[in-house]
Amino acid sequence: MNKDLYELVSEAKSKPHKLELVIFLFQPKILKSLFQTKQQEREDLTQELVILIIKIVNRYDVDKTPGFFEFQTKYHKKK
Questions:
Q1: Burial class (CB in 10 A: 0-12, 13-18, 19+), 60
Q2: What does pTM read for this prediction?
Q3: What is the Cα–Cα distance from 9 to 15, expressed in whole angstroms?
Q4: All residues at 6 or more sequence positions from 9 whose CB lies less than 8 Å from its CB, including other chains
Q5: What are the pLDDT digits (tens) for 37-76?
Q6: How far apart are alpha carbons 11 and 9 in whole angstroms?
């Protein structure tokens, strides 16, 4: 897999199998985070986190993401 997360999120809005791949990529982080919760709550929490990932991917506008130099300019203006 040579695509980065940015490209996958962009494609996931129109291709459901790409959304599945985004969720798959976050599985290790989700599973690691679940060890901080009780055993009986892990399954529900997993489902909630997957739903949250889906919502975020669908709302995320990749066209409004600033590039490095735009980010740098905004950062220096705030100082």
A1: middle
A2: 0.73
A3: 10
A4: 22, 57, 60, 62
A5: 999 999 999 999 999 999 999 888 877 777 788 888 888 8
A6: 5
Tell me the average pLDDT across 22-38: 92
Contact 22, 53 (CB under 8 A): yes
pLDDT at 4: 85
Block residue for tokens 């399954």: 43
Strand ranges in the chain using DSSP code E only, listed in sequence order? none
Structure tokens, 43:
């399954």
CA angle 48, 12, 29 (to 5 degrees): 45
The residue type of 42 is R
